[in-house]
Amino acid sequence: MKTYISRIIRVALFLLGLAVIYCALDYLLVNDTNARSRVTIHDFYETEDIETLFIGTSHGIVSIDAVALTERTGQSTYNLSTNGQCPQTTYYLLKEALRTHKSIKRVICEFSLTKLTVEIPHQPSTFLITDYTTTLLPRAEMILNQFDSSVYVNGFSRLRRNITPTELPTAEDIQTIYERKQTEKYVNYLGDKYYLGRGLWDYTTDNGNKGEIAVNISSSTLNGYTIDRVNEKPLKYIRKIAELCKDHDVELTFCFLPCSEYHLMRLGIYEQVTGIVKDIARETGTPVLDFNLVKDEYVNYDISDYYNSDHLNTSKCGQITDFLVQYLADPDGDYFYDTLEEKYPFKDYVMFAGYTREIEEDEMNITVSAVSYVDIPVNVKLCSLKKDEEGEYVVKKEYEPEETDRYSASYVLPYDKYKTYYSVDLCDPNTGELLYHAHTRFNME
Amino acid sequence: MVITSIRFLEFCLCSVALFLIFPPKHRWMSLLISSIRFYLISSGKLVCFILLTSVTSWYAARMLEQIAEKGKEALNAPDIPKEEKKELRRQTAKKRKTVVNAALVVNIGLLILFKVSKYFTAAFTYLRGLFTGGRTGDAIRVVVPLGISYYTFSTVGYLLDVYWKRYSCEDNFLRYLTFAIYYPHIIQGPISRYNLLGAELKKPELRLKWNNVIVGLESILLGMFKKLVIADRAAIFVAATLKRHKLGGWIYLVAMILDAIQIYTDFSGYMDIVSGISKIFDVELEQNFNHPFLSKSVPEFWRRWHMSLGSWFRDYVYYPITLSRPVKKLNQRALKVESVHLKKLLSIVVPVYVTWLLTGLWHGTGIGYVAWGIYYGTIICFSTLFSEDIRKMQQKLGIRTEVFSYRVFQTLKIFCIFIGGRFLGTSMGMKHKIEIIKRILFKFMDFSIFTYGLDRANFLIILFGVLLLIRIAVIETKENIFDWFNRQNYLFCAVVLYVLIFSVFLLGIYGEAYSTAGFMYRQY
After folding, report:
1. Alpha carbon of B127 to those of B116, B143, B469: distances in Å?
2. Least packed by Cβ within 10 Å: which of A282, B24, B156, B256?
3. pLDDT score recorded for residue B522
4. Which residues of B touch A154 (CB under 8 A)?
């Protein structure tokens, strides 16, 4: 008996030591000092009596102001949006939310169209959620149900995930992480200056466009996006979300946040794809809040409202909030057009600045052109920008193109990990008239 | 299913649970069920081949015993003339030989068929291309049954042992099948002997014992450290350099050293893991590595490296050849030769070269493996021929052979010979091998070793790992490392285990950016 007890004690002590060392290494080696979802999810757990929950993707992070909605509707609202959520992960996060906040009466669930093609959730986006949900079971449920066993170690251990075994952290890295974790901001989950409360983050204003957007046309997000790529798995989870809300006696609304005309133009099949979700909505008796069909008198979009082609600038929150207040008070109002054509009547001349980007060591090869329904000949002027004393962007240097043709110009720019802002001017080659102007860092989209 | 994967861990946990469900007397059945399940998961329908091998060898062994018993009964009958007895013995021997040959043809034939299948498929694809105007289509791929080299040798060894009457055959087919298909050893060995592993599996009771579990887990941890921290880390550098052209000689040399470290830690790490798993089930697997780089000679090296393969070839190839009539005749002729060295050479050359050629071919059928076999055969012949001369020369020169410095020299010598053999046996073309040698000799200067996937810190990790293994080897000259370790104070043990656990966890090459690479000897 004595031996038996002694063994149990030894094993217990050993496991305890293992846990302590693991936690210590996690603290010293995992740099989550800038993790938004850490603050968002913690703030969510701390906020009591939430009645309206907005849950969705990065589109929601920058454009749903739950603080303002709480003040104006009198109903405690929270924005539980995280980067890269897909219906599969939204389901589990919502399940956890409904478990911890029995007060929730209404859920607005936003979907990103590109996430409807995803069969297996994006790992980093999923781990943004699982790292910060407090109980093991929902975390385990999400990881075990969505991934195969080869992902389990990384899924359950952010310590392992944050270490590249062949590129080990240095003593300086460890010291930096430790110091940052001692700050009040980290200890008290305060978020940085971009956190506006209740899940809203404004990383667009300081970093956002002062003009129209330039879009990365080499980005694979929309390349080859067809109706065939819409995957059954996310649709299955959308139905599960509806069922979950029904079981919890919670009002559910599906939502699509606005995309720029450029995004809609490239997508080409917006109504077909949203139509699939709207069919599910009809089956399950769920209303749909489609911001891309909202009537102009309620919300009107200009290209300068966008941070990139499918994320609004946070400055647009005000109008979004105004509309949501009205909508939540009276969901049955006549707010929506029936078709996208009514919202965006076809213009034979819609144009954006587009670029392709290739990075080679410490240089970027950028080719700029006009993007539209037809090829548009342009002269391109590209300048790097800097902030003046008043914080306004001014021209720092104009770049000469390496190559030009009627429709585009190619440049070799220093690769500075996306920090420099550039202005892109597209001009009519005959008259010199400015056709399009954009501010961009060459990382948009 | 790679044994360092999460999937295998899940499988093992299920095996342990199944093991505990069965009563101790019948737990071997749970191992049989788990092993069949493992084989089905890993190889699917190819399980039919291991079943075929098991059935033929088991049945043939039973027939051998039955024929021997009948023969014995007939001989014991009263009043049989001497001539008739002689004829009976001859008939019995002939029948037994027919049975054993038939079984060997089936089992070894299957092994050879799968080993050379890639040549047939390549030829078929080529011929198909000739008849279809150059359109070869998809290459035909023959999937080789998991562990065929290992289980074939195990079952053939059993069959021959019964034939040579070393022990009786196993009457219970299921117990025999458990031995043949036992999953910890099926992938990469050891090549088990029925009288050893079979005896373990036939113990009256198999119990989950505290000490076995502790030692088993420690062994698994050590194996994971060797494989994931050292072997797979070294593999990054080796993969980035050895097959590339026009690198500095120093780079190639470092790559060859790391390649040797990689294969040792990969293979011995695997052995530690499967031994540990088996230990948890109260089943001892045979030792397969005994710190080979501490050897004093090449023959000793091969008694310490992949011991089960070496002893198999010794018992089932080398000795039978040595005792065969043609070789005996050769030995008798050799006695008439005056030169001592020639006498020795004639007596060993055939069995040594045949054994080593077959050993090379066991690893693979390419010309590299043949060269490897000839390489070691030659070294062993020389070692045997001139050992006495070398000893006399050392005495004359006053070289002390019992001192530490000489032991270091021996280790380095063995290591260099091993690297040479590895180099010879690799699948790189001859042209590239010659280029590497030229670069080592004439274009040595290129010290940019930290630009091929491993930085300074990673080399230090490999060095730390190697030093740890050297320390373990030194301890094991006197006692088993786990016995030594578990006698130490609790705090010391805990610290060492924590270091190993977190090394594997944080420094192991697996996960998101890497898949757990398969073990190298699995291909054989």
Report:
1. 17, 21, 51
2. A282
3. 53
4. 511-512
Distance from CA of B43 to the nearest CA of A (A): 19
| Mean pLDDT for the stretch of residues B159-164 | 95
Alpha-carbon span B74 to B62, nearest angstrom: 18
List, as one string, the DSSP characters of A233-295.
HHHHHHHHHHHHHHHTT-EEEEEE----HHHHHHH--HHHHHHHHHHHHHHHT--EEETTSB-
CB spacing of B510 vs A153 below 8 angstroms: yes
Q: Count residue pairs from A and B with Cβ separation < 8 A.
A: 58
Select from B352, B400, B414 the least CA-distant residue to B377: B352
Q: Do A166 and B10 touch (CB under 8 A)?
A: no
Interface of B with A (CB under 8 A): 5-7, 10, 210, 233, 236, 453-455, 457-458, 490, 494, 497-498, 501-502, 505-515
**pLDDT for residue B521 is more than 60:** no
Q: Which of A338, A367, A341, A377 lies closest to A264 in space, CA to CA?
A: A341
Name every residue whose Cβ is closer than 8 Å to that of residue B9 and which is 6 or more positions away in sequence.
none
Residue B468 exposure: Cα atoms within 13 Å on the Cβ side: 18
Between B140 and B390, the more confident residue is B390
User: Tell me, what amino acid is at A215?
Assistant: V
What residues in A contact B213, CB-CB < 8 Å? none
H or E element that contains B456: helix B456-476
Please give the structure tokens belonging to residue B316. 């089932």
Neighbours of A7 (CB within 10 A): 12
Distance from CA of B360 to the nearest CA of A (A): 35
- Arithmetic mean of pLDDT, A149-167: 85
Does position B432 have pLDDT exceeding 60, yes or no? yes
User: Which of B460, B498, B509 to mutate to probe the A interface, most A CBs <10 Å?
Assistant: B498
- Torsion A20-A21-A22-A23 (CA) sign: positive
* Distance, C-alpha A91 to centroid of its chain: 17
Asked if the ipTM is above 0.90, the reply is no
Backbone angles phi, psi at B244, to 5 degrees: -85, 160
**Contact status, residue A384 vs residue A328, Cβ threshold 8 Å:** no
pLDDT digits (tens, 9 = 90+) for A379-389: 999 999 888 88
With the CA atoms of B180, B185, B190 and B196 taken in that order, what torsion angle do they form, in degrees rounded to the nearest 10? -50
Calculate how close chain B gets to A166, using CA atoms only, in Å: 6
Contacts of A133 (CB under 8 A, 6+ apart): A41, A93, A96, A139
A10 part of contact set with chain B, CB < 8 Å: yes
Which residues in chain A have their CB less than 8 angstroms from residue B497's CB?
Answer: 14
Q: Which among A7, A13, A149 has the least Cβ separation from residue B7?
A: A149
| Residues facing residue B165 across a β-bridge | none
Nearest to A209 by CA among A306, A354, A301: A306
CA A12 to chain B, closest CA, distance in angstroms equals 12
Per-residue confidence (pLDDT) for residue B448, from 0 to 100: 79
pLDDT digits (tens, 9 = 90+) for B487-509: 999 999 999 999 999 999 999 98
* Cis before A429 (ω within 30): no
Cβ contact A17–B498 (<8 Å): yes
Query: Running DSSP on this structure, what letter comes out for residue A316?
Result: G
